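It is worth pausing here to work through a concrete case rather than discussing structure prediction in the abstract. The textbook approach is simple: state the sequence, then state the predicted structure, then interpret. We follow exactly that order.
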Amino acid sequence: MLAELRIRTFAIIESLTLPLAPGLNVLSGETGAGKSIIVGALGLLLGERGHADVIRTGAERATVEGTFEVVDRPEILAMLDERGVDVEERTVMLKREVGPAGRTRAWINGTAVTAGVLAEVGRTLVNLHGQHEAQTLLDPDAQRRILDAYAGATELVAQVRAAHAELASARQAIADLETRRADAEQRADYLRHVVQDIDGAKLTPGEDVRLEEEARRLEHAEELRTLAASVASALEGGSDGEGVLPGLALVQRALGGLQRIDASLSALQELYDTAYYALDELARAADRYARQVDLDPERLADVQRRRDLLFRLTKKYGSTIEAVIETGARARRELDLVDSAGFDLRQLQARERAAHAALAAAADALTAARADAARRLAHAVDRLLPELGLTHGHFAVALERRDEPGPAGAEDVEFRVTLNLGLDARPLARVASGGELSRVMLALTTILARLDRVDTLVFDEVDAGIGGRVGLQVGEMLRRVAAHHQVFAISHLPQIAACAHHHIVVSKDARGGVTAADVRVVEGDERVGEIARMLGGDPEREVSRAHARALLDREQSGRVTA
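Step two, the predicted structure:
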């Protein structure tokens, strides 16, 4: 429940702390005293859009804070934990700030959060019902959600949505396959040409690089042979023995002499041996290469023809051999689609039939639940309408069957009412005024209250367009709702204020030349005076106060018998 609301420099509010209690809290006060401003500040705290014009004149920013007690609400604690917000002593503190440019910041238990997270958490803590919220009753989707909540059909709704998504997915897969199959059939001749062209070439990855290297060797075969032979000849020498290797005999003799004198120079011999054997191996390798170089014009012509083929294929099907190979594989897959699509299509059609059957079964179950709930909800609302001043009111829920089940089920939901005797039921949007809508919303809220896990319900101007005995009945109904929820109602009616467990008065006065709003909890004689004022009399006259006391005494005695 909302334990305390603190507002700073918001519109005409300089600094205000609103204490709330369990049960029915009623906020009253003169017109223009700031009741709607308090509701606006609460809406800002719950995630509504902020604007710079809410900042009090002369202030830099506006701030709203709320302290909520969340005993026995583990789902809220889990939600906060998932978002990295610490919760201590089962208390949640929301804070929202509006800066000069209208930019807002938000915190939960001191942790900075986005406005979206604040709104998500706020929705689990408070439901705010005002004349704007009553207008949501005109939305078919809202009407459907109310009926489903009353039916306890959350799981069925999820099953229908999942089954419809699966059916839509299967149908989309069928459409995609048929489109690709049609495209492949249109391109079949071309695809066969591509496959034959590429497969006939028998390409291997990296072949172009290998052919380029081979072509270079074949084109320069004579030069390669001459250069390799000259290397071998320079190292081994000819018949005159003037090669590098024969000339090293002098070095060998000199090293032998050095070692006979200084044995420590054996390392020089090792270096010589390594160099000699390396040069000898180089000479042998160069000679072998020179003998192996093949002057083969026919092979060169073959290589050139193969390179020309590869060049043509890369021009047509891809910039590299690998890309050409992939183009061929892709063309084969498209051709395979022409042959295999029939089998794949049959599988998808079987999937579609299964999804359609699952959707039909889930939708039928949801329809049955809605039909039963529609009768029960209509009966429950009909019992409450006379208490709300709609003596001849009749409420009905119409289920209009669709041609095919959709993600929300097999029918559209429409709330219909008869508010005057002898008339046919018509859509709520066409017959109800703003005040009547508020009362229908109150009746529905009363019925759904026990199903709602949100602890705090806020009603702004729920008394619009009513008075007298109907006001008493609305007050008693709010009090019944308050048996299961904390209720915070903003009201002009003394009949509703007299039903409150906790009565708060908002007033305004001038401070330093600037209007400021303040609140106080009223009890005893002070509450009698406020009820007398709301009754339209002079709160100081005894006759007005007697009337107020009579109204309060009536409510007290009514509560005893309730």
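Step three, interpretation. The first strand starts at residue 2 and ends at 10. DSSP finds 20 helices and 15 strands in the chain.
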